[in-house]
Every structure is written in structure tokens, then in C-alpha cells.
Write a structure and sequence with these properties.
The chain is α+β, with helices and mostly antiparallel strands. It contains twelve helices and ten strands.
């Protein structure tokens, strides 16, 4: 696929692209919200992979996300605090990135922002092929107890030594652990067993078909419960319309009309809520680079693509 590195990546250009893309969903991007986040990391934008994301379920309605990568020499949490993008907190979520930086070798970072909600999430990418183990991660004082509390689940499905990426959501106070999962985790019987193990509804036939094409999965946990909130699966595709079961009019319009990354692969993520709702997230690239931890964290293991 072509590298879209030629697209403009200064603050104003990216801000305009975000506004235009959000407008396809009838979402108004607030410059007062978006611009400070981009400006805080302005020096890193020329080298960043930049992606836009939309979700199909009601929880995400009215917002639109953008994300971009950062090199490992930038501490995104320290910058976000210094620039007033997030507030200092005594909650353990505020200590997780510093703890990870002390414990783990880190390849790079990513930042998520909502065009309405503002700075949301930091992604921590471990070096390609150097997975972290739950034994090490659960020793961190800021780590949710639910990670250790579900150790049996992770060991049972071959995930305990395959942690690839950590996502820290400062607004919802949740954490994602992405795994370079064994192929068996995407087979129908295993998908069903995993959902039953954590009390999630049985996936639909469409979801089983989706999982069979997945390259990786992630779990969502929080600090207030011992439960795994959800399992989500990811697929790389050139035609995201293949996967959407109940696509709202606005999201369908976005998928068909987003002007960026037209010739580049898209990411589609799917999950089932505890109430049985199946939903999808589409990630489209404003600035794609095939050699990036943002989009190749798991693809390399399945497709044998090189990663930095």
C-alpha cells in the first residue's frame, strides 16, 4: 500500500482534516478542544501515523476520535499534565504510565483525543516481538487488581505472556491489554468459550466469522471491578463494509466518503457488550505508514510484515 506521508501534518492542516471527517458524521469538532492537544505534540506530528476512528454503538454517538503516534523519548502523560489536557489525580490510573516506563522497554506511544471530549487515552507499545508477561505487569502498584484476578483466564487461553500494547483511558478510567494471541483464540469454539468464561453473551454468526479473520484481540478492565468488561477483536481490511451488520446512516456515510487513506488498509474492531449489543469501530488513516506499531502490532505476527 502507498505511504501517505505527503499529506500535510502541521497543526492547522490536521485540525482541518479532523473537522472535515467529523462533519461526515454531523459531529462538530471543537477547535478549542482539538487544537491544544495537537499543539502540545506539534513537534512529533511530522513523523506520526495519524488515524481517525468512529464507532457504531450509542456510547460513542456524538463524538469522533483521532489518534497519532509519538516516539518513545516523549512522555505523553507528563506533557498532558503540563499542558492542562488532563488533571492531576490520586487515582491509580495516573500512576500506570510512570510505572510502565520504569518496568518495561517501550517502543513508542500513541495518543487518542475526542473532538468533543478532548484528551482521552495513551497507548504504550512494547517493542515488536518483545511481549510483556502478566507476572511482571500485575506486580505494578497502579495496575488494576482485575488483571491478576483473571490470571487463570489469560493462562487458559495462552495470553499470559503475550501482552503487546497497553491502553490507558484517563476519562473512563479503564485499561486495555492487547495480546498477540494464539491462532486458536480466533476459532469458533474458543471464542465462544472465552465469552462464556467472563459472562458475555454468545456472539452472533457474523461475529464468529469476523473473529476467524482477526489478527489480535484486547480485553478491557477497570479499577472498580474484578470483571473483564469485554473482549474486542481486530481485522485489517480494504473494504470495511464487509463487516458492518447494523450500520447507522451517518457511520455508513463516513465509511463511504472519508477522503483520507482511500488506498490504504482500514482497521475494524468488533466487540459484544454485556447487554448483548455487538458493535464495531472503524479506524481509517489520515497518514498511513506500513512500518508502525500503531497498525502493525499484531499484523506482523499473522501477515509477516516487518515492524520497527
Amino acid at each position: 500500500m502507498p505511504d501517505t506521508a505527503e499529506v500535510p501534518v502541521d497543526v492547522e492542516s490536521v485540525c482541518s482534516a479532523i473537522e472535515k471527517s467529523a462533519g461526515l458524521l454531523d459531529v462538530t469538532a471543537s477547535r478549542e478542544v482539538v487544537r491544544p492537544v495537537l499543539a502540545a505534540f506539534e513537534d512529533a506530528l511530522p513523523r506520526a501515523v495519524i488515524a481517525f476512528r468512529v464507532a457504531t454503538n450509542a456510547r460513542y454517538e456524538g463524538d469522533f476520535d483521532a489518534r497519532f503516534t509519538l516516539p518513545k523519548d516523549i512522555d505523553p502523560y507528563a506533557v498532558a499534565l503540563a499542558e492542562g489536557l488532563i488533571a492531576q489525580t490520586d487515582h491509580p490510573v495516573g500512576g500506570l504510565l510512570p510505572d510502565l516506563r520504569r518496568l518495561c522497554p517501550i517502543d513508542s506511544y500513541g495518543v487518542d483525543l475526542g473532538v468533543v471530549s478532548g484528551f482521552k487515552k495513551i497507548w504504550v507499545y512494547f517493542p515488536a516481538g518483545e511481549h510483556e508477561t502478566l507476572d511482571r505487569l500485575t506486580g505494578l502498584p497502579s495496575m488494576p487488581r482485575s488483571l491478576a484476578g483473571n490470571a487463570g483466564f489469560f493462562h487458559r487461553y495462552g495470553l499470559a505472556d503475550k501482552a503487546d500494547v497497553i491502553g490507558i483511558d484517563y476519562r473512563s478510567r479503564t485499561m486495555n491489554v492487547y495480546f498477540s494471541a494464539p491462532a486458536e483464540c480466533f476459532e469458533r469454539d474458543t471464542v465462544l468459550a472465552m465469552h462464556r468464561d467472563i459472562g458475555l453473551p454468545t456472539p452472533s454468526e457474523r461475529m464468529f466469522t469476523f473473529c476467524a479473520r482477526s489478527f489480535g484481540l484486547y480485553t478491557t478492565l477497570n479499577w472498580d471491578s474484578m470483571e473483564i468488561e469485554r473482549i474486542s477483536y481486530g481485522v485489517k481490511t480494504d473494504d470495511p463494509m464487509d463487516f458492518f451488520a447494523r450500520l447507522g446512516t451517518k457511520v455508513a456515510h463516513f465509511v463511504k466518503n472519508v477522503p483520507y487513506g482511500v488506498g490504504d488498509p482500514k482497521m475494524v474492531y468488533a466487540a459484544v457488550t454485556s447487554g448483548g449489543e455487538e458493535y464495531y469501530k472503524l479506524q481509517s488513516y489520515y497518514r498511513w505508514r506500513p512500518v508502525s506499531r500503531l497498525n502493525a502490532a499484531y499484523i506482523a505476527a499473522r501477515d509477516k510484515e516487518p515492524v520497527e
